[in-house]
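Notebook, p. 212. Picked up where the previous page left off. The plan for this session was modest: take the two constructs that came back from the sequencing core last week, fold each one, and keep the raw output in the notebook itself so nobody has to go hunting through shared drives later. Recording the first one now, exactly as returned: residue sequence, then the structure token string.
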Amino acid sequence: MSKYVLRLYVTGNTERSKLAIVNLRSICENELHGMYSLEVIDILEHPQLAEDEKILATPTLIKELPPPIRRIIGDMSATGKVLLGLDLKSKISEDDNDM
């Protein structure tokens, strides 16, 4: 398995930001078994990074490696959609309609 390089952009210490971080860490631990690096970037502290990546909404997850680059927007609570975005699942079940 390739190592995943992930960046999660959040806005401050809001409940939505915290939820996205907790959900994503849980997914990564359960599915990637330590084969990932996750950087959490607060756009209030680092607005230039958000501008460089053209982040329009938060939370936004960018999967840089392995290719292709993917973007996932939301609180990462729709596990199936996150797995699909990370190329760990081939289809979305009916339980994962919303993110």
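Okay, moving on. Second construct, recorded in the same format:
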Amino acid sequence: MSRASATTVPMAFRVSLPTRDRIDKLARVTRRSKSFVIEEALENYLDINEWQIQGIQDAVAVADSPGADFSDHDDVLAIWEAKVAR
């Protein structure tokens, strides 16, 4: 596993039959364990979502800061319409 630690813990959860079949197939064709496939999938999911949430929190902090600069919706729309018209 890419980031597996020396300590792992068992975890039980339910998945749909099609998801289970996809995990089984991917494990088989990559010659990895189902645990490896699931761990990698969870790590990727968490990485993406943590990155996205952090970006949102950073943007909100900037927007909430004193002197934050906002663009008027109509101005932004006019700029995009001009670009599309070219």
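Notes on construct two before I forget. The chain is about 65% helix and 0% strand.
Flagging for discussion at group meeting.
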